[in-house]
Amino acid sequence: MLSSVKEAGTASTSPAIRPNGRWPLPPSVRALLRAGKTRRRLVPYLLLVPSAVAIGLMLIWPAIQLGEYSLQNYGLPQVTGAVPTSWVGLGNFRQVLSDPEFWSSLRISVLFALVVVPLTLVAGTLVGLLLNRLGRKMAAFVSTAALLAWAMPAVSASVIFVWLFDPDGGVADYLLARLPSWLGGGAHWSGFSWTNAPLPAYTVITLLVVWQAFPFVAVAVLAGLKTIPAELHEAALVDGAGPWRVFWKVTYPLLKPIFLVLLLLSVIWDFGIFTQAYIVTGELGNRDEYNLGIYAYDKAFTMPPAYGVASALALVLTVMLLLITAGYVRASIRQGAIA
Amino acid sequence: MRRARRAGLNAAAIAVAVVTLFPIFWMVSTAFKPATEIYSLTPRPLPAHPTWTNFANVLNGSVIGMPYWTFLRNSLFVTVASVLVSSVIALLAAIAVARFRFRFRTTYLIMLLIVQMLPQQALVIALFLDFRRLNLLDSLIGLILLYITFALPVTIWMLRNFVAAVPRELEEAAAIDGAGPLQRFWKVLLPLVMPGLVTTSVFAFIFAWNEFVFATTFLGTDQAKYTLPVYVTYFFGKGSVDWGAIMAASVLFTLPVMIFFLIMQRRLRTGLLAGAVKG
Questions:
Q1: Which residues of B touch A216 (CB under 8 A)?
Q2: What is the ipTM of this complex?
Q3: Dihedrals φ, ψ of A152, to 5°?
Q4: Could you read off the pLDDT of A80-120 as tens digits, one per residue?
Q5: CA distance readout (Å), A91 to A76, A227, B278
Q6: Test mutation, A39, A60, A125, A156, chain B, max B CBs within 10 A
Q7: Which domains does chain A have, with CATH numbers?
Q8: Handedness of CA B6, B12, B16, B17 (dihedral sign)
Q9: For B122, which of A44, A317, A324 is closest by C-beta distance?
Q10: Do B106 and B146 sit in the same domain of this protein?
Q11: Last residue of a domain, one of B51, B74, B89
Q12: In this complex, do A62 and B212 lie within 8 Å of one another by their Cβ atoms?
């Protein structure tokens, strides 16, 4: 990489340095100038060295290692050095594919994203549209409230939601028990445990994640709405279009690039959700509530560790996320974000 | 008609705000309730007899045998150190991609977008084994290294817009006046990029302050090294749950982030969008 830069530096010599080509410079001075130019060409690379080294060592290298470990028999005896690691080919992957727990965790990850992504996008868009039509003070109030939810650390938010839905003293069960029965309420709710089965647990996680993620969508949609000239909406309204039609015929087509990016980001975040799911499902142990990420983590950090299988699982998760990321990168390039 | 619509919109707005603020409100309210009210069968929104007991228990350490201050110190050390270092590294990289045209520039930017999406819970497996070999488990220095790195993609991506927004002409004018590259950096670019640097460091701060996966995995055995997120989840799920103490601890853990956000709201909103939605 550097050698090609140097060659380019030496190849393009004089014109830029001697604007008129009138006074020929002594060779020593010319060499000095050339060196200066080469050095200038090196500047951006030098500026990138620290970040490239850090990212290379702690983001890219571990990803490559996952690939390596996933092909190895790597457990506790190999870590302690009692037994050397051995290559097992695709054995770990074969084991993963025939493992019902892998399929159930994958199903949970996929279903969770399928439910939470649309909920987040719809809730966020509605709030964004609302913010756009509110008075200045009201809009500031609502967006501050929303940003506080967004700013909430995932750990605090998860702990709070577990408490809200606690069977002993949680406010959710209390309110549900007092809800009229035609709304699904009733005494059977008091003492209902939300974290003992996958469906209730992921209902809590869904509410939690939508609560934390909709503000981001709302703020992004609002920023997009501000770029649409008001006349467009007015013209559509004058033509007798209702709010539903205005949204789909005017707003949505104009904001499509923003929605695409928000969609992809949401899919990446929700498919890869970890901290919230890990805490709400009780920090490992409830195996039927594992999503793909938690399952991989469990394989690596529950005794006895199976780093090879865990890496295979982690790699499956990573590759799936990277496939969606490819779409995200393409959308970003199209939007001109990489200019 | 118009007034009715306005009233309807405002009612919807208040409903959104109330629902959004409710969990935060409940955290604070629980933190001030005595145990009898927390486990009461008819929970009330506000504590009837507000008490500082939960906070006192957290602060003097009667809950897990170590005071809150230990964990606050760990969190502050890890966060401040990683933010300072990553800001400097990110600024250098941002200048490179915003001020220079060179081969691999686009490649580098795309690489940043991609690595930003690598799942932590996957990388933590390989990183755990690496850190074990390097004796960096149970070490705050190890966490700092990780937090520096994981904050970089987003901070570089955001900072590059702030650097690009500084007119080149200003630096050229300084160059004509005889300022060398370093002087131009200190006297022209840095002061103008400062607001952007502050914004991006808040994001780096929040990332490090909130980070849970690495902290809980790497600080497993040594309680005295715990950062606040690990501490908050530690006494949760261990035996009988003391919700008053947990809520008091989350209030103390969340408060700094909330205050940061309220002060810097406007700036953060721009940064938020610049970071993820549009370059």
A1: 272, 276
A2: 0.88
A3: -55, 125
A4: 777 778 788 787 888 888 889 999 999 999 999 999 999 99
A5: 18, 54, 43
A6: A156
A7: 1-51 (no CATH), 99-302 (1.10.3720.10)
A8: positive
A9: A317
A10: yes
A11: B51
A12: no
